């Protein structure tokens, strides 16, 4: 092979090599463009998902705020609805009261009916409380004083009960589930030093 032919052959080979390199570069550019396009799509999808999630969270927050406001406003409606029958029974009891009776027998009869009616109303209220998770705290005499449920209103010197025990219940307390509404007002015993010395 002559030098000219070698030079032409090398020139053709160089062009082929250059064309191959250019072709390879074009393929890389096309691949990079394709990858860039896919990344842009993924970014747009992620951005859209993020915006939708934020909107959903905002909707949930608004719904919860609305429910909280409604509960604050109408939360006691169930309890009040149950107490309406109690009001009706009080009105019936008052209509049977002996206030307007002249005959003594009628007064005694109506008083007994009034007493029975008021007692039934009290039982109905306690039943409504129990259905709504409200418990009466009515300690027994001799029970140990518990500052979580009782409030000491007075101390009584006595040897009948151990010191620090409940010896008088002035007013019952109430709790709703595990939350105290009002402590029971009680008298607490203390040792009677005068009688002990005698």
Describe this protein's structure.
The chain has four helices and six strands, in the order αααββββββα. By secondary structure, the protein is α+β, with helices and mostly antiparallel strands. The strands form two sheets. A three-stranded antiparallel β-sheet has the order 1-4-5. Strands 2-6-3 form a three-stranded mixed β-sheet, with no helix packed on it. It starts with a helix and ends with a helix. 6% of the residues are buried. The mean pLDDT is 83.
Question: What keyword list fits this structure?
Answer:
single chain; 198 residues; alpha+beta; three-stranded antiparallel beta sheet; three-stranded mixed beta sheet
Q: Order of helices and strands, N to C?
A: HHHEEEEEEH
Q: What's the helix count? A: 4
Structural class: alpha+beta
Strand content: 15-25%
Largest sheet: 3 strands, antiparallel
Distance between the termini: 145 Å
Mean pLDDT: 83
Radius of gyration: 44 Å
Low-confidence stretches: none
Helicity, in percent?
55-70%
The shape is elongated
Strand order of the largest sheet: 1-4-5
Total beta strands: 6
